Amino acid sequence: MTFSYDMPLYRPPSEGDNLILQATLGCGHNTCAFCSLYRTKTYTVRPLEAVIADMEAAAAVWPDAHRVFLADGDALRLPADHLMALLEALAERFPRLARVSCYATPGDIQRKTEVELAALRAAKLSLFYVGAESGEAETLKRIAKGATPDSLARALTRAREAGVKVSATVILGLAGQGRWRAHAEATAALINHAPPPYLSTLQLHLEPMQRELFLARQEVDFAFQDDLGILSELEVLLERLDPPRPVIFRSNHASNALALAGTLPRDGARLLGQVQAARKGLGGVRPVWARRL
C-alpha cells in the first residue's frame, strides 16, 4: 500500500486480518485512568479526502478486502453524515465489503439517533467494540470512564435495537482487592440486563506512565489483585452471569491469567469449573511472563 499509518495504531485482536483505515486519530475521550493508548495523540478528524485516498491505495492491492476496521479510538464520534460518506466510499471501492467495525464509547452510541444508527447499520457498519470496563458506579467514577451503569445499559440496548452487534470488554482487577466483589457482581448485573452478543475480559495492566494517574483517582489506598484474587473475581462474575440471550464469552486476551471460551448461559457450569480448578492449582494459569496488552 502507498499510504502509511499515524502511529501508534491499535485495533481489536479479531481485526488483525482485516483492512484498517484511520478515519480519526487518537481518542476523543482519552481520560480513562487505566488507558495510555492514545496519550501521545490529539484527537483529530482526518479529512474525508485523505481517508478516501487511503481506501483507493488499499483497493489497488487488496480489492477483495471484505472487512474494514475504522481506527483510531472512537470513529463513531464522527457525525453521521461523515460516517455515511466513508461507508459509501468503501462500498464503491470494495465490492465484497461485508462488515465495517469501529471502537465506540457509550456516549458515542447515545449521541447517534435511532435513525442514524439504523442507517449506518444498513451501510454495513455492523459491529461496535465497546469498553464497558465495569457495571459498578463507583468503579466507573474512579477510572473517569465518563459513563454510568445506566448509560452503559442504554448504549448497549440502543445498539442492539439498531441491529448493530457489540463486542464488549470488562476489566478484571479494576477495583483492586478492596472492592472486587462489588465490581464483579455489578458487572454481571449489567450484562444480564443488557447482554451484548460478545463479552470478553481483560486484566488490569498499567503502563508505568499511567500508574500514578490511576492510583491518584482511587481516593483510598488501592491494593492490586494477585492471580488468586483475579480468579476469585472471575468466579463470582461467572456465577452471577445468566443472560437472557446467548453471549459468546472469552477471557483469552493475552492480558488474562486464565483463558476461557464458551457461550453463556449454556457453558456457564463448565467455565466455572475451569476457574475453580485453576484456583486449586490444577493448571491453566498463563505464566506472568507470557501476558501482555
Can you walk me through this structure?
- With 293 residues, this protein is α/β, with parallel strands linked by helices.
- It has one domain (13-280): Alpha-Beta Barrel (TIM Barrel).
- The chain contains ten helices and ten strands.
- The protein has helices at 48-61, 80-93, 106-111, 114-122, 137-142, 149-161, 180-193, 208-216, 227-240, 268-279; strands at 19-22, 24-25, 44-45, 67-71, 99-103, 125-133, 165-172, 198-203, 247-250, 261-264.
- Strands 1-4-5-6-7-8-9-10 form an eight-stranded mixed β-sheet. A two-stranded antiparallel sheet has the order 2-3.
- α1 (48-61) runs parallel beside α2 (80-93) and α7 packs parallel to α9 (227-240).
- The longest helix is centred in the first third of the chain and has 14 residues, at 48-61.
- The radius of gyration is 19 Å and the shape is globular.
- It starts with 18 loop residues before the first strand and ends in a 14-residue tail after the last helix.
- The relative contact order is 0.10.
The largest sheet, given as strand count, sense and whether it forms a barrel, is: 8 strands, mixed
How would you sum up the global shape?
globular
Can you give the mean pLDDT? 95
In total, the number of domains comes to 1
Please state the structural category.
alpha/beta
List segments where confidence is low: pLDDT < 50 over at least 5 consecutive residues: none
Helix content: 25-40%
The Cα radius of gyration reads 19 Å
CATH architecture: Alpha-Beta Barrel
Number of helices: 10
| Order of SSEs | EEEHEHEHHEHHEHEHHEEH
**Name of the level-1 CATH class:** Alpha Beta
CATH H-level homologous superfamily name? Aldolase class I
Question: Care to count the β-strands?
Answer: 10
Strand proportion, as a percent range, falls in 15-25%
CATH topology: TIM Barrel
| N- to C-terminal distance | 27 Å
Q: Which strand order do you get reading across the main beta sheet?
A: 1-4-5-6-7-8-9-10
